[in-house]
């Protein structure tokens, strides 16, 4: 359980940092909810991440973090690919 929490926090941090870099280079946020809530802000993003963890633990669904980790891992991979294309590595 602790490892899933640490992985979830790390993947969220990686996603937030990659998103911040991409936005600073002129990319746009494709997720309307994230755009509206300014989810590129690390404080807001960190608070939302901690809220998800706490809620899942309170309702005794902490095992779902494993599935969320898979989704965030795919998202981070997608962000890395998109960022490398954006900065021209694969041109």
Please summarize what this structure is.
The protein is mostly helical. Helix content is 75%, strand content 0%.
Structure description:
With 91 residues, this protein is mostly helical. It has one domain. Helices cover 75% and strands 0% of the residues. The chain contains four helices and no strands. The longest helix is centred in the N-terminal third of the chain and has 23 residues. It is globular, with a radius of gyration of 14 Å.
Q: Give the total of beta strands.
A: 0
The amount of helix comes to over 70%
Note the main sheet. Answer: none
Distance between the termini: 41 Å
Structural class: mainly alpha
Number of helices: 4
Radius of gyration over C-alpha positions, nearest whole angstrom: 14 Å
Model regions low in confidence, pLDDT < 50 over at least 5 residues = none
Topology order in helix (H) and strand (E) letters? HHHH
**Could you say which overall geometry the principal axes of the C-alpha atoms support?**
globular
Arithmetic mean pLDDT: 88
Please state roughly what percent of the residues sit in beta strands, choosing from under 5%, 5-15%, 15-25%, 25-35%, 35-45% or over 45%. Answer: under 5%
Number of domains: 1
């Amino acid at each position: 359980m602790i490892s899933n929490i640490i992985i979830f926090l790390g993947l969220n941090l990686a996603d937030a940092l990659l998103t911040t870099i991409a936005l600073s280079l002129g990319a746009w946020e494709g997720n309307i909810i994230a755009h509206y809530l300014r989810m590129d802000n690390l404080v807001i993003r960190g608070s939302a991440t901690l809220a998800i963890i706490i809620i899942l633990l309170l309702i005794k669904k902490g095992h779902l973090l494993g599935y969320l980790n898979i989704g965030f891992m795919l998202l981070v991979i997608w962000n890395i690919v998109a960022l490398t294309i954006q900065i021209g590595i694969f041109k």
